[in-house]
Amino acid sequence: MHQIGVIDVDMNIEAIVKQVLSEMKGNEVGQAAPRTAAGSIPKSARVAMLTDLEKVELKEYPIPVVGDDDILVKVEGCGICGTDAHEYKRDPFGLIPVVLGHEGTGEIVQMGKNVKKDSAGKSLGLGDKVVTCMIFSDDPEITMFDMNKQNVGGADVYGLLPDDDVHMNGWFADYILIRGGSTVFNVSDLDLDSRILIEPCAVLIHAVERAKTTGILKFNSRVVVQGCGPIGLICIAILKTMGVHNIVAVDGEQKRLDFAKELGASETVNFKDHNGIEALTEGVKTAFGGYLADFAFQCTGSPAAHSNIYKFIRNGGGLCELGFFINGGDATINPHFDICSKEITTVGSWVYTLRDYATTFDFLKSAKSIGLPLDKLISHRYSLEEITEAYKTNLAMTGLKIAVINK
Prior knowledge:
By secondary structure, the protein is an alpha/beta fold. The chain is built from eleven helices and 18 strands.
């Protein structure tokens, strides 16, 4: 009887071992449950779906299954970009229905077993604060060393993806699913306001890097920045952080010009105080002590403003045009007087590369260390339920950066 009992025990152990080995094998082929943060994750979540022109509906969908290469992020906040406003008003990219929001950030609450590091090689775990950049679904092998080879114009971006069966494709939501093939950065060392500003700041980091390729933009350059919306104001802050100290800001709103000085402009010119382009050019020269600019950044998105900018630049000077994110219409210039006879070196700038994104994190820390009040760029904060009002505030241009904040 004793021997039979030993055989039964051995058979039970063998069955247990087979079961464990079977489970381990299943894990190897991707059947492991995703890692989940402490606390409950709801079965469903809301998204702010743009369903028609100027019509946003809060819709609720099941939280999608998190795959081995995916990350589920609880959204903390997202800025409203000019591109979002264009899409809300006119749908120039034909995306409707779509969940917008690409200036977002949040906290990792669930992640697949294969996710270990971010796109810069930094460790990534539950509770980390993250932002996304591009989705290279057709080129998943891209690494940090390739980051300067392609700008975002050649890739997809969360917040500008047409709706699909996942639904949680944009940052104007309670949760967003970051899928394999995406770029993601651990930015836990930045506060919420700084994280919301990463995407627009990356646009300007890229523009300044493009400007530097001309060989004209230097520490002692006289630089004019035309347009003091969020883009122009961030441009001024980046130049100031780099050590450029002779910056003239041009805009038609005095409050924005006053803030431009807080961010690093040495002088300002209100174009409403000058009648015609000749008088405005004299105003810029006076602000520079009788000189034209060595370099100019055109940040308005206005064809008329683009036509004017050449007049502010000295012979042999440079220009970076970055104001046009959609087709804003034609500008009229005189190629002989505006470009050829002055030998103006011009570069265009379109969004950013991955490397610019990484550089932006250091810029934000540097700007804060020298006391630039970038946090004041976020002038209005709305809840997800108030997103229609947030869009209207953005379109009315009564603030600077408008943000949707999840409580």
